[in-house]
């Protein structure tokens, strides 16, 4: 019998990528979890191998019903939109997913996680919420991971995404900004060589983990990495692909936070992201995301230049 895989956040970037990758692998029955199965973004996912199921991450009863009969589940939460930037709510939603998986006997729970930044940042940075989180959108996911490992000690795998290439798209927050002289500037407060990935490759890695099963991946942290690059490297890739002069500057973290608040970014968001970049400058994020391991799992993983070429049309409003 085909294994039944539940995919949380099926209409989002990560869950949608997992669903698509599992369809390409084939041989699975897929259950796409969505808050509104009747929405256009949901109905387009339906097919012979994909069942749409309503699931509310704040409603444990709906989650138990959604996970019933599943052999494996991909779990992901949305800190920024669905959780409204609330780390406590993200933690509770994640716990609800884990509890439902445990109650329904799910054999493999694959969680999209991130590091706990507090050990590296707490001595020097003020907490941003009442639970002492220094980068709430990282730290809450790490708290879910700790709970998952406690509740499902032989059935967990954590996938660690990198910085999304999609953040470089026009209007996405890390895109090159036009300058009066016709050049472009990327201004982010990070000097480190960071790991980057296409969101589709999160799906490809998670699908490879699910296909491999708990025998191969239980108890492991698996990184997603398509490119290791500083912001200067990213600017050089833009220049090469688009033939434009693109440079990078790395202002101090707190100065950058004040600058983006001036551009209309809410202060809690600006401080969270500034601390995130400080974390990247403090701890080598590549340790949990070896590029060689991603290439072994996904031989066709996209590097930055290849991704830019693939998305050339999306940059037309910026570069013409």
Write a compact overview of the structure shown.
This protein is of the alpha/beta class and 320 residues long. It has 14 helices and 13 strands.
Structure in words:
- This protein has 320 residues and is α/β, with parallel strands linked by helices.
- It has a domain at 3-162 and 198-225 and 285-301: NAD(P)-binding Rossmann-like Domain (Rossmann fold, 3-Layer(aba) Sandwich).
- It is built from 14 helices and 13 strands.
- The protein starts with a strand and ends with a helix.
- Residues 1-287 form the NmrA-like domain.
- Pfam families: NmrA (PF05368).
- This is NmrA-like domain-containing protein.
- One of its GO terms (molecular function) is oxidoreductase activity.
Anisotropy-based shape: globular
**Poorly predicted ranges (pLDDT <50, ≥5 residues)?**
none
CATH architecture assignment of one domain: 3-Layer(aba) Sandwich
| Number of E strands | 13
Question: How much helical structure, as a percent, in the residues?
Answer: 40-55%
> What percent of residues are in strands?
15-25%
Rounded average pLDDT:
97
Radius of gyration: 20 Å
Number of helices: 14
